[in-house]
Amino acid sequence: GFSGQIGTELRKVFFKKNIGITLLGRKEPLLNQNERFIFFDLNKKFNSHFFSKEVIVIHLAHDFKKNKSNVNFSGTENLLSFFSNQSSTRFIFISTPHGDNPKMDSLYQSEKKVTENLFSTNDLILMPSFIYSKKGKTNSLLKYIEKLRIPILIPKQVNDIAPIKLSTFCEFLTKEENLLDLKGRYLILGKRDLSFPLFLKDFYNLNSLKAPNFFFLVLIKVLSLIPNHHVFYIEERIKGLMNLPDLKKTKEKKILIG
């Protein structure tokens, strides 16, 4: 997932710290001096002799395919199958906080299946609550709406968020001492607990209007018919908001950063 929002920022942090990394993917990007690229298709078995015995694998889960057999699950299985043969491997899976909403599509269900069934006691699942940045597609969309001076529609039933700045999360992720003693599943939260309307007002000076959740479920269905990955990104952000667990009631172990 090196080409996504978190992956792009992580690459910058690793470059700044001069930490050597290997990118796995289907399309080679313009590489920094600290990087190498190995072709990998999530749907196919992975095999490579380019790794030492001690490996930390970071899988930034995301999927632009709309099928019931989610590629994140098969891809993670393929990676685990290969790296389990290494003498010292730690797998870090960056997931999406998910509730038990049956109306959410296979992306959330497969991530839940991955985190519950595939990992050893040494592996780590991190679920950041709500990542924001002054860059990227979401920021551009919100800045555009801000210029229009119109309120933005948001789901009526959205739990409070604990926003995390993208750079803060990536810095946390690249400090070995932060992760050394962590095992299992953790919900990663920003230290400031905000309602989503207050976040929009504070960070973008945007007013919001609450619409019934069924409106957004219909909107998601409509967006799913548009074969464009930018549209799909917006679709997934809406789902993420609607499916964000109640931070006060969840039983997940929590880490506050920022």
Structure description:
This protein is 38% helix and 21% strand. α3 links the parallel β4 (88-94) and β5 (124-128). The chain starts with a helix and ends with a strand. 24% of the residues are buried. Residues 63-69 and 100-108 have low confidence and may be disordered. It has 258 residues and is of the alpha/beta class. A 5-stranded parallel beta sheet has the order 3-4-5-9-11. It is built from 9 helices and 11 strands. It is globular, with a radius of gyration of 18 Å.
- Uncertain stretches of 5 or more adjacent residues: 63-69, 100-108
> Which value, in Å, is the CA radius of gyration?
18 Å
Shape: globular
The fraction of residues in strands falls at: 15-25%
User: Helix content range of the residues, please?
Assistant: 25-40%
Structural class, by secondary structure, is alpha/beta
Nearest-integer average pLDDT: 78
N to C succession of SSEs? HEEEHEHEEHEEHHEHEHHE
Tell me the distance between the termini: 23 Å
The order of strands across the largest sheet is: 3-4-5-9-11
| Biggest beta sheet summary | 5 strands, parallel
Number of helices: 9
Annotation, overall tally of beta strands: 11
How are the SSEs ordered, and which strands pair?
Layout: H1 5-16, E1 21-25, E2 35-39, E3 54-60, H2 71-83, E4 88-94, H3 106-117, E5 124-128, E6 130-132, H4 136-148, E7 152-155, E8 163-165, H5 166-173, H6 176-179, E9 184-190, H7 196-204, E10 208-211, H8 213-223, H9 229-243, E11 254-257
Parallel strand pairs: 1-2, 3-4, 4-5, 5-9, 6-8, 7-10, 9-11
